[in-house]
Every structure is written in C-alpha cells, then in structure tokens.
Amino acid sequence: MNNGQPIAIVDAFTETPFRGNPAAVCLCPGPLPEDRMQKIAGEMNLSETAFVDPDSEGGFFLRWFTPRCEVQLCGHATLAAAHLLWEQERAPADEPIRFQTRSGPLTCRRVAGEILMDFPEEPGLATPPPRKLDRILGTSNFELVERNRFDWLVLLEDESQVRDLTPDFRRLLWLDSGGLMVTAPARRPEADFVSRYFAPALGIDEDPVTGSAHCFLGPFWAERLGKTSLVGYQASKRGGLVRVEVPGTGRVTLGGRAVTVMRGELLR
Fold it and tell me: In terms of domains, do 129 and 245 share one?
C-alpha cells in the first residue's frame, strides 16, 4: 500500500460535529486485500469503515467493514463516502455518484445540501418473538415482532420505552441475525417514529444512527401510518434524523446531511 493514502472521519445524518454516526472513509487508488481492510477497520474502531476505489465507468466500488466483519449494506458509511468524494472534488459536484456494492448498485445525489441515497427496501414479516426476548430486552412489554433477512424489529408502545431500554448485549448474541432494532411512534414534532439499533454480533453494541435499518423501518411505518414521506429519529446518545421516502417501488430514498470532523493519511 502506498504511503499517504487519504482517510477521514465523517459524522453522518447530522450537520453538527460529534453528533450522528461517525464513519471512517478510506479513499483507495485500487482494491485493497480483504484482510487489510479488516485490519484498518479494527484500527479505526468505529461502527463502520468504508473503502472506496474507482471503477472503470466513472463510479466507485464501495465496501463496508465493522471492527469484526464485512457487512452487506450500510447507510451512514455510504452517505459519509459520498459526502467526502464531493467535498474533496473526486466526483462532479452536480452529478450523482454511483457505487457498486455487494448489495447491488447504489446511487447518491445532492439536493439543497442534503444527500439522498437510493437503497433497496428490506421489508419484514410478522414472526413469533425469538426465545427469551423479554430477558434480552429487559421488558416483555412489546406489541409486535417482525424479521427480514438481516435483522429483527420489535415494536414498543411509546418513545420513552425506546429511549430507556437497557438490553443485555451478551444475550443479544443469542439471536441468529445481524442485529435488532426497537421502534415506537415519536412524540417529538420533527419525527414520525423513533428507533434504536443493536448489533453486538457485528461488533457494534449500539449503532448511533443506522441508515440501512431504515430500509426496514421505512416500509414498516409507511404501512402503519399511511404515509410515503417519513422522518425517523434514532434515539442513541449521539442521535440523528433520517428522512425516508417509500414510493412502493421496492426501493427507498434515505436522506441526511454529513460533516467531516477529521482528515489524515494511512502511513503503513
């Protein structure tokens, strides 16, 4: 690997530094070995590190790694990667950015300072609760459980339950899925629903703001609220807003802002 390879930390789904979800973005001249990417992600020790390198068609290849493993879809690190490419003038300012990923092609565009991302819907189906869910969450007061190919979704009664939840992260490892999200209707005027997302199996006890979870949350709340335009607030300590459009085409549009908080170089 060449010395001086650019890397940055970008806070996604916020325009305020040290809020939202931080992602490391590594701008690579070409593909890196998989074990190298995993070691860099472990060194950065953020929920995700994005690795971006140019393709032959004017777009970019994009992969995402947690400190423990590669993931198939990541919203906040995609937003962070697009933000950094535009900020550093590595992509035309007035054109969409097209990423090739392990979940297929993803497109990002800018509208009035907000980055809009075209992602696949990941709806779930109602399912019996996993064994000992009450012990995992520390409450038996849940209304509904759904599951998609990545995650569990648990509907709680109100926002305060979501905020106050203290799950058992060790027991969360019992679940045979990537993660678990809890959600409820929002009390706050700026949002339609609130959520939190836990994924210790991926090396992330709690993710601050999870774009990809809204591929599940968006269709779920669109159906329940009878709306196609929604705003979700992720009620982690850092917090962040995610705009979601659910047109019913099998795709969702996720929207948010981002701010770069650190730039540097990989020297080894």
Answer: yes
